Amino acid sequence: MEQYYTHWLKHRTVLHELLEEVGPQHVFFKPWSDGFALGDLAVHIAGSTDMFLETIKNGQFVSPRTPREFQTMGEVREILDEFTEKSKRDFQELQTSNLEKEIDIFKFTAPGSYWLESMIDHEIHHKGQLFTYARMTGSQKMPFFKQLPPQAVNDGVE
């Protein structure tokens, strides 16, 4: 369980860092008309992770919670902070039996471990999109795609 948690947290930490680099005027930036707005995509990541963890904990599909409304990047960051803290607590509640239990999500049945891996992959996929959004809006200082080991940071690797 610890490996899943650590792997997820290395990516989530970078999501927080990435959003710090986005200017406040870009909260509703969309690269195309039907795409997610930048803030909506960040909130979608957090809400989806919550949905996956609740589903795995409960052993059956749990509909995503609707996050509160936002108007600013600061509010997007607050929502992400709130969901991140909840996800950390949810991870602590997971047991091996949760990962072994077969769960149906959208007519696909797989063990909780499959859905946990899918949750992490989903977050990585959308975080990659946010990297592109951030570059398109002029962000210059970008974090590495996942949290680096302490030694790499100390050696100036970025």
Automatic annotation (TrEMBL):
The keyword Metal-binding applies. It comes from the Bacteria. InterPro entries: DinB, DinB/YfiT-like. The keyword Metal-binding applies. Keywords: Metal-binding. GO terms for molecular function: metal ion binding. A divalent metal cation binds at residues 44, 122, 126. Pfam families: DinB. SUPFAM superfamilies: DinB/YfiT-like putative metalloenzymes. Belongs to the DinB family. This is Damage-inducible protein DinB. It comes from Fictibacillus enclensis.
